[in-house]
Fold:
Amino acid sequence: MATTVPNATAVRLDGASLTREQVVAVARGASVVLDAAQLRAVQRTADFLAEQVRRQEPLYGVSTGFGSNADRLLGAHRLRGDGDAGTTLHEELQENLITTHAVCIGEPFPEDVVRAMLVIRINTLMKGHSGVRSSTLEAYAAMLNAGIVPVVPKLGSVGASGDLAPLSHLAIVLLGQGEAFFRGERLPGGEALKRAGLSPIRLSYKEGLALNNGTAQMLATAVLCAARLETLVDLADRCAAMTIDAFAGRRRAFDAHVHALRPHPGQVASAANLRTLLDSSTLSDIAYHLVPRAKPWLPSSWPNASLAALSFDIGWDWVPADQRHGRERFYQRFKPFRGGKKHQPQDSYSLRCAPQVHGAVRDALAQLQRVVDVELNAVTDNPLIFPDLEGAKHIEDQVVSAGHFHGMPIALAMSYVKAAIPVLASISERRLNKLVDPATNDGLPAFLSGNEDGTDSGYMIVQYTAAAIVNDLASRAHPATVYSIPTSANAEDHVSMGANEGRHVLDMSADLAKVLALELMTAAQALDFRRDMIEAARRLAREADLATFASKVGNAPPDPHPQRAQFLAECDALRAELASSQGFAPGREVADLHAAFRAKVAFLGKDRALDGDVAAAVDFVEALLAR
Structure:
């Protein structure tokens, strides 16, 4: 069939080499091709199983019922005569399994999740230990490649025996039943197959059980979430770097030799990322005395028309000589002025501890990725079939009932990530809050608005929205894995609830993206103000006389006063240093991110409706996730 023809753009499925990146590619529309050699191994197992049925061996899920019905052996004939005369009991068993188990409810999963489920399910069956025929896998691949997307409602899996109900919604379309999306239209499954030029299939021995017994839903959500979080953790580092530049913060806490003393992999990676992002920055680590603080604009604030166009005023406070006792060494390095940057050697935790917090989230993500990489090429249905097992003495050696469908390995890894998501959102919101709060933003305008008339709210309520999302994420972080509810008349007496965990985590990652978008929006505004304020100070130093420049400095001694001459001399030294400076800018990568963001969201000079800005910021982040 066409699905086995080599295609350079298709993802080749052989049951052993599927990657997270390939799942994402198929979720976004790539086609698949089935490895011809592995298809022969698949058929070998199906033929072996058929031979055991011919020999009337009692096999779970083949010649017995399922779950608590496992003690019910299929007879040679129907007890009632009302069945389909053209269908054997073995076929009816498999078809009934699918049709009765497709009972999920709620809104359907989006197309990318369902396509990820399909490729994962096909790949695990390609391992050749499930008993399906090669023709059944070819039909599945043809359905995927034709763009048929089964309707899979979100609620109904307990994560063991795998994702029975949602996988039944996948498989039922192969039978010409259920519903599917095709070319944007929701159709009966049989009609979707017909429009794609495909035909329904009949299930053979164990095929129903193989198709619906496994971890494909929880694994699909885990893969897509991991892909999103990989981008979002990097974005969190980028947002933090922009915020650090906007604060004119300190970089030494990110030094490599510092993190070598506590080398958690994620922490080391985030610290290295921040160093790269802040490389070449002349805003971070800027001398304290060069950073003015914002003051409300007044008509008399600036000496010429070009500076008067600014929406703020600036200023410093002079530190008199008699208040420098015990700090002489400090004032040998820094001039005696207090502006916007606090005279302290360390920033608050949300800035200084970004590697430790972001890095811990990276480590949680790495654990999920490790589990996913194993699971993608694992067999997760039951029973397992070993047609070529050496030394087998009984059929029970070759057809083994086990528990690979149990989703706990994935579920617990997702619980770890589930707890990490609100942590990353929380530290982002704390940085955002610091930027808008005049008590903590190191001299930036309150709520990042000039607000000379007292009418503007600026970015005040942006922080409210971030806080609301963080609270919601925190309230959803309780692990589903800790609350098992037995099923199937207690035959399945411990389940993982991994499907709920995966659904929660994928949804939560979307809300994390919104919080980071709000921090990015706020940090860009703050960075503009910080850069403009320091640039205004440079221009004033170059264009104004000493008296005009000194008027920006508070706590000045009157004239006459014993310290008046010292004050003016030190003001002149500050003016000369600013005038001779080459300008101050963020790190190169921060500047690139800022420029890209500003192409979508403009600086807020005066209050305007911010709903469009917020939507554009979220779209900006979603575009990063789609790359």
